Amino acid sequence: MADRKLATGLGDEGGFAPEINCPEDVLALLTQAIADAGYTSGRDGIAIALDPAASEFHRDGRYQLCGESLTSDELIDRYRGIVEAFPVWSIEDGMGEHDTAGWQKLTEVLGERVQLVGDDNFVTNPDLIASGVRNGIGNAALIKLNQIGTVSETLEALSVCRAAGYGAMISHRSGETHDSFIADLAVGCGCGQIKSGAPARGRESPNTIASSKSLLLRQI
Question: How does pLDDT run across 123-141, given as a tens digit for each residue?
Answer without folding.
Answer: 999 999 999 999 999 999 9
